[in-house]
Specification:
The complex is a heterodimer of chains A (658) and B (312). Chain A has 658 residues and is an all-alpha fold. Chain A has 25 helices and 4 strands. Chain A folds into 2 domains: 562 residues, no CATH class; 71 residues, no CATH class. Chain A is 74% helix and 1% strand. In chain A, the strands form 2 sheets. Chain A has a two-stranded antiparallel ribbon. In chain A, α5 packs across α7, α10 packs across α18 and α12 packs antiparallel against α13. Chain A is globular. About 2% of the residues of chain A have low confidence. By secondary structure, chain B is of the alpha/beta class. In chain B, α2 crosses α9 and α4 packs parallel to α11. About 3% of the residues of chain B have low confidence. Classes of the chains: A mainly alpha (658), B alpha/beta (312). At the A-B interface, α3, α7, β1, α15 and α19 of A face α2, β2, α3, β7 and α7 of B.
Chain lengths: 658, 312
C-alpha cells in the first residue's frame, strides 16, 4: 500500500498532472466563492472534459475542484455573510464580524491555513485507514441518522441563538420547510399549494442565499445606507499574513481537534458533511478559556469551522472509494466520473485500479498545498472586494443571488422562494432570531425524515419502534451528546458567554418579539396541519412530529414573551423603513420583469435603478452614465458566464426574444 | 398554363420545403431528469460525442432534476414537438408515476425513441445471511409475517412493484423499506439494517463477495451473473427491470423520430458501448420506437391493477 501511495505521489507531481490540479483548484475556488454556484456544478461542468483525458489526469483535476471549493465557500461567508455551501454556515459566525472590523484578510488567511491543515490531516488518515473507517460509516442506520440530525439542530440552536428554545423553534420550522415537495420515501406530494415545480421541494441555494445574503444587504446596505460592506478600512499587507500564520501556529490542538471532528462526522454519509463544522466550532468554544470571544470575530472560530469542513471532504470520499457510495453530492459526481472511465468503486478500486486511486488521493493532498498558496495570495485581492462602494457591489451581488438561485434547477419559482426567504430572514434577524437553525433544519430535514420513517418501518418489523431507536450504542452516544450540548451552558452558568452575533440589545421597542414569532409559528403550523390531511401514514409522520415539537416550543416561547418581554423595534426610523421597502420592491420588480422582457433587459434596468437608488442624493449625470456602463458590462459578463459556459437556459422574455 | 403551375407550385414548395429538409438543422437539446453526475448523466455524456457525429449538430445537455424525474418529464411534454427536444426516459418511472400520483404528465404524452439498456433486479442478501436459497427466505417470511425487512430504491418504483408482486406470488407478507435511491439502499443492506434488498447486477458488483443474489427477476439467467437462478425457475413468474432510453413529446413528426432512433440504435449496437455497459453489470439492449411503445403498453396493463389496489 505504501508503495502505491509513493507511486501515486510521483504520478500526481508529474508536470501535466500538477498543472491540472492547480487549474482544478483554481476553478474550485471560483465555483465555491460565488454565491449560487456550487462545487457540484463545477464538477458537473468539467466532468465531460475529463472524458478525453487519462483517467488519473481527469480525476485529479476533479480532486482539485472539490478541495478548492471546500475552501472557497468560506470567502463569501467571511465577506458578505453568505455561506458558499451549508458546510460554511459556522464560518459566518466569526468570519463576517472579523470582516466588519476590518480584519477580512486575517479571516481569509485563517480559512486558507485551516483548510490546508484539515485537508492534510484527513488525507493522511484517508490513505492509511480508509477501509476500517468505511466499516464505521456502515454502522449508521436509520435511528443513527435521526439522532445525528437532532444533534446538529441542538448544536446550532445553542451556538447561534444563545437560547435553546428559540433555536429549536426556528430549527423545527426549518424541518417543516424541508417537507415541501414529494416525500422522498413515501412518494406523497405535500405542501406544494398547487405549484407543480414545488414537487421537487425548495432549493437549497434559494434557502442559503435568501436567509443569509439578502437580510444583510436589506438591513445594512439598503436600510442603513452603509457606504461599503466592511465598516472599517481594510489594508491587506504581508505583515497581516505573517502575523496570522504565527497566531495559527499557536493553536495546533484546536486545528487538530477540529480536523478530526470534521473527518469523523464527515464519514456519516449525507447529514455528516453539513454539521461537521458546527460540531467543531461548538467544541472549540466549549474548551476555550475565553468562550465569550466566539461570535464576535475571532480567528479561532474561523479556524475551527474551516479545518473541519475541509477535513470533511476526504471523509465523504471514504465510503465512495471503498464501497462505491458517495457521502456528499460532489462525491456523487466524482463517482460518475469514475464510472465514465470504466472504473467501479468498491472492492476493485484499490486492487485493479490501485494506481489511479492512489494518484487521485495524492491529488487531494497536493490540492491542499495549492489552497494554501492561492488562499494566502488571494486574501490580498478578496479582502479588497468589500471595499468597493456598496452602490456598485450590492447590485452585482443581488444579480448573482437571482441568477444563482435560478441556475440550480432552471426554475423561476426558486427565485421567488429565495426572495420570500430573504424577507422572512430579514424580519427574523430584526426580531433577534438567528436564521441559522432554520436553514440547518431545512438542510437536515430529509435525513431526519428518512431516519424517522425507516426506523418506524424496521422497528415495527422488529417489534418495537422506540426500543429500536434508542438501543444501538451510536444512538445512545448521540442522545448523550444532545443532552450535554443542550444543558452544558445551563450547568456551567456560561450561557451569557455564548452571545450570538445577532443578539441585539434589548432596546425599548413596541414589538414583543417572542410573542410575535410564537404566534406566526402557530399560524404556520395550522396551515400545514390543514394541508397535510389525507396523506399516507409514512408521508405524514415526519410532518406531525415537526408540528408537534414546534407547537410546544411556540407555546413556551409565547409564554416566555409574557413573563420576560423582549420588546424590539423593527426599524430605527421611517427613513430606514422606507428604504428597505423600496429596495425590496426593486428586487421584486426585477423578478417580475424577467419573464416579460427577458433576462438581459431586466438586469440592465435593475442594476441602473438599484445603483441610482443607492447613490441617493449625490446623483449626477456622470454617476448615471457610469452606472449604465457598469450595468451593461456586468449583465454581459453574467449572461456569458451562465448562458454560454454553464449552459443555463436563461429566460428570454415574451416581448424581446434575445 | 405553365405560369399557372408555377404559381401553384412555388407556394407549395415553401410549405413542403421544411418536410424535405434534413433533420436536424440546429442543435438538439438532451434533457437529463436526474442530477448532474448521476447514472443518466454519465450515460448521456457517453453518447454525446457519438450522437454529434451521427446527427452532425451539437447536443446540448440540460438538467431538470427533481421528484424522481417527474419534474423533467412534465417539462418534456410541454416542449415543442419538433424533435429538437428529447429527454432521457426511465421505465417503469414514466408508467408508475402517473398511476400513483399527478406528476404533471401522462405516460402517453411521451413517445419513446429508443431503449438502450436494461437493469434487472434480484433479491440480494449479505454473504453471511442464513438465507442460502430463495426458498429459505420465503419459509422465514411465512413463519414470521412482516418481520422480514426488504430494502428497495423508493416508493412506486420498479423495486417496490417487484416486492408487491413477489409477496402476492409467494403468499407472504414482508416489510418493504424504501430508500432515497439506489445508493442508500446498498448502505442499508451492507450495514445489516435491512435483511434483504432488491439489487441490480451493477449495484451488486462493487461489493464483490460481501453480498449474494438469491434470484433474478428475469426470464433467463443473466449474462453477467449466469450462476444465479431466476424467480421463474422457482415457479414464480416475476419479471422486473429498469429500462433506460430517450423520448420526445407526443406529436413529434415521424421522420424526425426515425432519424433520432437510427442514431441511438447505431450507438447502442457498437461493440465498444456494449463492452462498457457489461463491464459495470448493465445489460445492453437496442429496442426501437415501436418495440418500446409495446413494452410500455404491456407493462402498464400489468401494473395498473397493482398500483390502483394500494393507492385508492
Amino acid at each position: 500500500m505504501y508503495e502505491g501511495i509513493i507511486n501515486g505521489l510521483f504520478q500526481a507531481l508529474e508536470g501535466w498532472n500538477l498543472l491540472l490540479i492547480i487549474f482544478g483548484t483554481f476553478m474550485g475556488i471560483i465555483f465555491g466563492s460565488m454565491p449560487g454556484l456550487t462545487a457540484t456544478m463545477g464538477l458537473a461542468l468539467l466532468v465531460p472534459f475529463t472524458f478525453g483525458m487519462e483517467p488519473a489526469a481527469g480525476l485529479i483535476m476533479l480532486a482539485g475542484i472539490y478541495v478548492g471549493a471546500m475552501y472557497a465557500d468560506a470567502i463569501p461567508a467571511i465577506l458578505i455573510n453568505t455561506p458558499g455551501t451549508p458546510a460554511a454556515i459556522a464560518t459566518t459566525f466569526d468570519g463576517f464580524p472579523l470582516a466588519q472590523k476590518g480584519k477580512a484578510q486575517q479571516a481569509l488567511v485563517t480559512a486558507a491555513v485551516a483548510s490546508f491543515f484539515g485537508s492534510i490531516v484527513a488525507n493522511i488518515i484517508l490513505a492509511v485507514f480508509a477501509e476500517p473507517l468505511a466499516e464505521i460509516s456502515l454502522k449508521f442506520g436509520p435511528p443513527e441518522y435521526f439522532w445525528l440530525g437532532i444533534f446538529g439542530l441542538t448544536i446550532i440552536s445553542v451556538l447561534s441563538s444563545g437560547s435553546l428554545l428559540k433555536g429549536y423553534l426556528a430549527g423545527f420550522i426549518g424541518l417543516i420547510f424541508s417537507a415541501v415537495g414529494m416525500a422522498s420515501l413515501s412518494g406523497d406530494v405535500r405542501l406544494t399549494f398547487g405549484f407543480p415545480e414545488l414537487q421537487s421541494g425548495i432549493s437549497l441555494a434559494g434557502a442559503l442565499i435568501g436567509f443569509f445574503c439578502l437580510p444583510e444587504i436589506l438591513s445594512t446596505i439598503i436600510g442603513k445606507g452603509k457606504e461599503t460592506y466592511s465598516g472599517e478600512k481594510i489594508k491587506p499587507s504581508i505583515k497581516v499574513l505573517y502575523e496570522t500564520y504565527i497566531a495559527l501556529a499557536k493553536m495546533p490542538f484546536l486545528l487538530l481537534r477540529s480536523a478530526l471532528i470534521g473527518l469523523f462526522v464527515g464519514i456519516a454519509p449525507g447529514a455528516g458533511g453539513n454539521i461537521a463544522s458546527m460540531v467543531a466550532y461548538g467544541e472549540a468554544s466549549r474548551w476555550d478559556k475565553n468562550p465569550e470571544d466566539y461570535g464576535k470575530g475571532t480567528i479561532k472560530g474561523v479556524a475551527a469551522s474551516e479545518a473541519a469542513n475541509s477535513a470533511m471532504a476526504p471523509g465523504s470520499l471514504i465510503p465512495l472509494l471503498t464501497l462505491g457510495i458517495p457521502g456528499s453530492p460532489p462525491a456523487a459526481i466524482i463517482l460518475g466520473a469514475l464510472m465514465l472511465h470504466g472504473m467501479q468503486p468498491g472492492v476493485e478500486l484499490f486492487s485493479t485500479y490501485g494506481g489511479i486511486t492512489y494518484t487521485f488521493m495524492m491529488g487531494l493532498f497536493i490540492a491542499a498545498f495549492a489552497i494554501l498558496i492561492f488562499g494566502s495570495l488571494g486574501s490580498f485581492l478578496f479582502s479588497r472586494l468589500i471595499t468597493i462602494p456598496a452602490r456598485s457591489l450590492a447590485p452585482v451581488i443581488l444579480l448573482m443571488t437571482v441568477l444563482g438561485s435560478y441556475a440550480i434547477r432552471n426554475n423561476l419559482l426558486d427565485v421567488w422562494v429565495m426572495l420570500l426567504f430573504g424577507g422572512i430572514g430579514f424580519f427574523l434577524t430584526k426580531l433577534s432570531y438567528h436564521p441559522a437553525p432554520l436553514v440547518l433544519g431545512f438542510i437536515l430535514g430529509p435525513y431526519i425524515e428518512e431516519g424517522l420513517v425507516q426506523s418506524t418501518m424496521i422497528g415495527g418489523a422488529k417489534g418495537g419502534v422506540i426500543w429500536y431507536m434508542i438501543s444501538s450504542p451510536i444512538s445512545l452516544f448521540l442522545i448523550g451528546l444532545c443532552a450535554i450540548t443542550a444543558f452544558w451552558p445551563i450547568f456551567f452558568q456560561a450561557q451569557s458567554k455564548f452571545k450570538p452575533q445577532t443578539a441585539i440589545t434589548t432596546a425599548k421597542g413596541r414589538i414583543n418579539s417572542d410573542i410575535l414569532v410564537g404566534l406566526i409559528s402557530l399560524c404556520l403550523i395550522t396551515v400545514v396541519f390543514w394541508s397535510t390531511r389525507g396523506l399516507s401514514f409514512y408521508g405524514v409522520i415526519f410532518v406531525n412530529f415537526c408540528m408537534f415539537c414546534s407547537a410546544i416550543f411556540g407555546l413556551v416561547i409565547i409564554l416566555r414573551g409574557f413573563v420576560k418581554p423582549n420588546k424590539i423595534d423593527l426599524f430605527e426610523d421611517h427613513n430606514e423603513r422606507n428604504r428597505v421597502f423600496l429596495g425590496f420592491l426593486l428586487i421584486f420588480g426585477f423578478i417580475i420583469l424577467i419573464p416579460i422582457i427577458g433576462f438581459l433587459g431586466s438586469s440592465l434596468i435593475f442594476i441602473v435603478s438599484m445603483q441610482t437608488f443607492l447613490t441617493g442624493t449625490s446623483f449626477t449625470l456622470r454617476s448615471a452614465s457610469t452606472s449604465v456602463g457598469q450595468a451593461v458590462l456586468i449583465t454581459i459578463v453574467a449572461y456569458y458566464l451562465f448562458s454560454m459556459i454553464l449552459m443555463v437556459p436563461l429566460p428570454s422574455g415574451v416581448i424581446f426574444d434575445i | 398554363m405553365q405560369r399557372f403551375l408555377i404559381v401553384l407550385l412555388v407556394p407549395l414548395m415553401f410549405v413542403c420545403g421544411p418536410l424535405f429538409a434534413d433533420f436536424p438543422e440546429k442543435n438538439v437539446t438532451y434533457q437529463i431528469t436526474f442530477s448532474p453526475g448521476g447514472g443518466s448523466d454519465v450515460r448521456a455524456r457517453h453518447q454525446q460525442p457519438y450522437l454529434e457525429d451521427e446527427l452532425g449538430k451539437k447536443i446540448v445537455i440540460q438538467y431538470k432534476p427533481g421528484a424522481g424525474g417527474s419534474i423533467g418529464w412534465a417539462n418534456l411534454v410541454k416542449q415543442k414537438a419538433d424533435g429538437y427536444f428529447m429527454s432521457g426516459i426511465n421505465i417503469p418511472h414514466i408508467i408508475l408515476q402517473p398511476l400513483a400520483r399527478k406528476p404533471g404528465y401522462e405516460t402517453e404524452e411521451i413517445v419513446p425513441v429508443a431503449l438502450f439498456q436494461q437493469i434487472p433486479f434480484g433479491l440480494t442478501v449479505l454473504q453471511d445471511s442464513p438465507f442460502q436459497t430463495l426458498e429459505d427466505l420465503i419459509n422465514y417470511a411465512k413463519k414470521n409475517p412482516a418481520a422480514l425487512t426488504i430494502g428497495g430504491s423508493g416508493t412506486w418504483d420498479a423495486t417496490h412493484i417487484a416486492n408487491l408482486q413477489f409477496e402476492m406470488m409467494a403468499g407472504i407478507q414482508t416489510t418493504y423499506v424504501p430508500h432515497k435511491g439506489g445508493k442508500p439502499k446498498q448502505t442499508s443492506l451492507l450495514g445489516g439494517h435491512t435483511m434483504a434488498s432488491w439489487f441490480g447486477p451493477n449495484e451488486k458488483m462493487p461489493h464483490g463477495d460481501k453480498v449474494r443474489t438469491l434470484a433474478y427477476a428475469t426470464e433467463n439467467p443473466i449474462q453477467v451473473n449466469p450462476e444465479v437462478p431466476t424467480f421463474a425457475s422457482y415457479g414464480y413468474p416475476l419479471y422486473s427491470s429498469v429500462y433506460h432510453g430517450v423520448g420526445v413529446p407526443k406529436g413529434t413528426p415521424k421522420e424526425h423520430i426515425e432519424v433520432l432512433e437510427k442514431a441511438f440504435l447505431k450507438i447502442a449496437g457498437l461493440d465498444e458501448t456494449k463492452k462498457v455497459k457489461l463491464k459495470v453489470g448493465i445489460m445492453p439492449i437496442a429496442l426501437g420506437s415501436e418495440a418500446a411503445k409495446k413494452l410500455i403498453a404491456d407493462k402498464k396493463v400489468a401494473w395498473e391493477p397493482i398500483v390502483k389496489k394500494f393507492v385508492d
